[in-house]
């Protein structure tokens, strides 16, 4: 289990306790990473990822009976986990630190970096400020200009990386979004990494035309860099399941689209205030399509797998003592525009967005289209600034422009410390490329909401339930997480899906092609001493696994 920015091992106390109750302790090692606590996270995602990789190697060496590894990360911890997995991934065996990758879970993680502009990576706080009556336009312009340099000052190298400010020269050429989506889907079937195959050994120059070492780190996390021994996408692809927990509102740091890997047009419509799981994809969505038939054929499938998106109230989740009870509760969620089948949506969305993007580039920010979907009545600022159907309340264009010019001058002064300005077109294209590559993988999305709670603006901490005395509204979410992992373990054991990731993603690739045989024939993913016991997302049987 991996904490986020400025976090500590104590952030996992509540989740760790629940996982221990729902997973077999005889065969499950729950390990909480503690190599990057507090200010160490300011060293950057790569520095933290290298330390985590060393920590996982040490745990694996101490516990030789481990056979599988799962990773659970919150916020920045999800990015650190992806880096460490890429460092530890062996293309020849399809293993991470010598262990079969099992479950990958990210909670409120900014997979698409952070941005001040209105796109899937936008920091919600900036959008909320821009919606404040009378002063929002002025203050929003200043905050937007200062976000990146201030982040680099307050959070060090990590702040640069969050805002894609750590790259080299600006891109000369950038692929169009549709090309990126098609490339990601093709390489997902072949098992090759974006920007270079894990098995080719060739130098990696991404679509932006820059050498890998000159690209922003978060952009590189959606590629393989084999010459550097970094196989980020191959490692992520190798996990049997991938799950995203995302705050649908109230998270002031990481937006809904960012943490759930959706475009703004793919976000489901929200209705009313609520607390709990407002939408969950079926369990099967976490697996590759090729493995789902085996899951449906299991005895537990009827009781654990509904085959439809559902929602659960806080009370329903807390009342469930087992995955079967959880599956039996809840109601069908409105299909909306869920964005779960990214491959099917990609063509329609890209055809619509390309002409719109050209029009938006010529329009002032106030004239650009707003987010679709109905408002979720939570706070007046959020209704005004975040949801569809609202009018952007801004000050006069003259005042906003003047504020922006003043902020730009301050940015230039702060830039003496090495902050690189990313052009709007470049940053947004990078976000689209990252999203296209990540959407080429199957994900199970679980959308949660704390709108009806006492402190909805602490949603980023609630989703992990960092501290019981203030983040207690998150108890239903962590209960849902524990029950979901228990359910997925039951399905994977009965369905024999071990190695399905390698079979699906590596059918045409040398790097992952061998994982299927090793996982199925060698028995990877099951502890030698307890072959029938579940192995959970905390490293269980995964070294540090849940690191």
Overall description:
With 547 residues, this protein is of the alpha/beta class. Helices cover 43% and strands 9% of the residues. The protein has helices at 13-22, 45-62, 76-88, 124-130, 136-155, 157-162, 177-190, 217-220, 232-238, 256-260, 289-296, 301-304, 314-319, 323-328, 342-361, 380-385, 397-414, 424-439, 459-462, 468-471, 475-495, 500-505, 510-513, 515-521; strands at 68-74, 89-90, 95-96, 100-107, 224-225, 230-231, 241-247, 275-280, 310-313, 331-332, 444-450. Residues 169-181, 190-210, 335-419 and 502-547 have low confidence and may be disordered. This is Lipase. It comes from Micractinium conductrix. Residues 1-255 form the DUF676 domain.
SSE arrangement:
Layout: H1 13-22, H2 45-62, E1 68-74, H3 76-88, E2 89-90, E3 95-96, E4 100-107, H4 124-130, H5 136-155, H6 157-162, H7 177-190, H8 217-220, E5 224-225, E6 230-231, H9 232-238, E7 241-247, H10 256-260, E8 275-280, H11 289-296, H12 301-304, E9 310-313, H13 314-319, H14 323-328, E10 331-332, H15 342-361, H16 380-385, H17 397-414, H18 424-439, E11 444-450, H19 459-462, H20 468-471, H21 475-495, H22 500-505, H23 510-513, H24 515-521
Parallel strand pairs: 1-4, 4-7, 7-11
Antiparallel strand pairs: 2-3, 5-6, 8-9, 8-11, 9-10
Helix pairs in contact: 1-21, 2-3, 3-9, 4-5, 5-17, 7-15, 7-18, 11-21
